[in-house]
Amino acid sequence: MRYKTATQWGVYEVEVLDGKIAAVHGIKADPAPAPMAQTLLDGIQHDQRIRRPAIRAGWLHDQNRGRSKRGVDKFLEVPWDEALDLAAEELARVIAEQGNTSIFAGSYGWASAGRFHHAQSQLHRFINLLGGSTRAMNSYSTAAAQVILPHVVAPWSQIELEQTSWQEIANSTELVVAFGGIPLRNTQVAYGGITEHQSAGGLAQAISSGVKLINVSPIKADLPDHPSSQWLACRPGTDVALMLALAYVLETEALVAREFLASHCSGYDLFREYLLGHEDGVAKTPQWAGKICSVPAADITSLARRLVKQRTFLTAAWSLQRAHHGEQPYWMLVTLAAMLGQIGLPGGGFGFGYGAEGFIGSHWRRFNWATFSKGMNPTRFAIPVARIADMLLHPNESIHYDGRDIIFPEIDLIYWAGGNPFHHHQDLNRLIKGWRRPSTVIVNEPWWTPTAQWADIVFPATTALEREDICASSHDPYAHVMQAALPAQHQARSDHEIFAGLARRLNVEAAFTEGRSQRQWLQDMWQRSSELALREGFKLPEFEDFWHAGTFQIPEAGPRPVWLADFRANPVLHPLKTPSGKIELFSKTIAEFNYGDCPGHAAWLEPFERLGGAGHSRYPLHLLTPQPERRLHSQLDHSAHSQAGKIQGKEVIRIHPDTAAARGLCQGDLVRVFNDRGACLAAVGLDMNRLVDVVSLPTGSWFAPLDDATDANGNPNVLTADIGTSNLAQGPSANTCLVDIEKYLGTTDPSNPAAISTP
Questions:
Q1: What range does the domain containing 310 cover?
Q2: Which of 12, 187, 339, 661 fits 358 for a cystine, CB–CB 3.0-4.6 Å?
Q3: pTM for this structure?
């Protein structure tokens, strides 16, 4: 039998034989199904599944909950009723004794492509009915962008969904300059799911139409190799210096679009003072930039002159803003595009994240489907997601954030459902110290991931293949029925069932379920979506007809308008959502925050460590932490498909042959990657198409510390620094990281991991 399902990496048909997944097939509508779907073959029914509810022994038997043993203790399997009783009692205790802000409701929302079985929505609806909790805001992927860009040009949600399509690039663009490249490996995925993987085809169409590409990156593979493409090797974290030098050439050679700057932008004169060195005594010349970014001054000058001669599209990868002062490359990219004066023209201007998710650059009609309602968080309290460890370690202390101060609460209970903080967060050794402070950690999880192993109460949750749902997202023109291909494995329950059981014990079940079955919830969401569709000028089929057909495609609404074309045509009638209504090259708002690490205009700010700068003499290699090719973040890392990309069970660190030779390393050697923050093991993969002193280790290997705290599997976040991008956004600075590497000859197996079975 074949069953249709949807994941964050696409829509598939799963073939089941004798109760086992036998094959995974892409659907006809998808021109390039993502290979990572093969993780489903053995990942769902893997030995790592959590079979029954489990309680950490120290939490159950130690009067002080044995917090220091969290992560290494044994687990005891218990009946569902006992586990639910214990969790409900603990939630009630914490609320009564310390209030709702002492609960941190953690979730990262990547658990399912379904509209109903979305772990974050289920968790937040449940906790809201109890009086709310402390939450996380923004994302690890785009935190700096989410905060800086509304001040400068537009809300992040608008940029993400409305920016220039690949079709428009192919039709109108002559030159694409991609800072950070366009790494197509990341386009396998999209939050909420994706039907048609079009990024690779869109880029190929652009190339065949004659578009020239420049990859500004330390790694050549960040843009597909093609005769039409050029590689400009730039040191990590120095893109702003390079952009400033390009801007300097434009300004000093009278190549700036002054009319556009005058009519559509605010604050260029103030930025110009900085650019020319009148503000700080440093002119941002190509010679100045070349010493920082390693790009020859002559190449910078040549590129600047080329930008104004062609219809030019500037883009920056998400990775650029996941670094110290990560707000600056995005602000500077907008500034540089404004100086060219092509914003709002077909195929001109700027964009972000091409190569980050599969829907970016699509031309599809946008439609906001109805969702499972979370309700309102009564506490209305949230912290930047990258500051979780700070919150746990420093209760009652404050941080700056986007013009206000946030005081951290004292967290006594963490409830996590969906996502893996031991993947996403930086400086995991620091996170562990904070993670052991609360009295209780409760986790819903299908597998014994690090998050489950570092919990106290663990509920076994179902996967998307074990429940019904609807896949429908705002950036995809399709809705799909998601069928249950397998019965719930072992004693797993859906997140909805788990929270309904807790809600019953805490007297909020009626409000949580509203008396609906899970199928009735799907019918309700479809009905509300139907009402929204009528307002948009099209009609959805009846629910039963949709369920029988399995798919519905939203009708096209005509060609997508050129992004910011209305603003270009008349900035008075079509102002931006900025204080001035214009593109803010100088922001009075940000300037008045008086943050030393984020001034009122785009600027080069020295990061806390970089090649050629601070820390380089001690740790001579710059570590980048890209997304993996064979999984989404850390999902299903235990699967055969993910493991096949490793060497000796370790994640592969890509190293230039000269870097390896200087350390006596060969292809496949096991190495220890280290700095003052931590260490991990990895296997050498030689790659000459990168800057010599730049290494890369993908994120997502399941955290597994050895006795000396060295991670055994190659999780790079034991090395990355838990430092905010700036006081403005407080995003993650993962890509600002120096390390060294040495051959490893010790033991490679964790000797004391958290037990995943009863004693």
A1: 148-365+562-593
A2: 187
A3: 0.96
